[in-house]
Sequence to fold (142 residues):
Amino acid sequence: MTYVSYPPVGKEKNLPVYVTGVGVCSPQTEATRVSPSSSFLMITVGGCGTVKIGDKRYELSTGCGLYVSSGVEYVASPGHSKKRGEGSEWLVDWVSFDFGSVDLYTELFTVQEYMFMTFRDPAGVSAAIRRIGDAISSDVEY
Fold:
């Protein structure tokens, strides 16, 4: 089931890191995008796709992900998985986040604007993103 939410942000801005959006099993389409004012992390949970940033191209098959800092332009292109049993639709779980402290952001994320990852525990990463979605959708202070 696809779930996407951009919760209103109020006093969460006082936290060191806070969620600005979350998506679960979100279908990806061909598009040129600029990452929102927030940074985001995504992980492929079905199918595969390609993300091009500058002159670098990354193949994101199931279990692979990408961190992209705010304001970075990228091109997303769904692909067709060569792995048996995987559907052709590119599905990702993602979470976007921002920082209540400029110092924390600059300390952690000034070196790299983006980073490709192959997760050791992709199910654990997806489960964490889904728990974030559950917390936001449950109408409690997340």
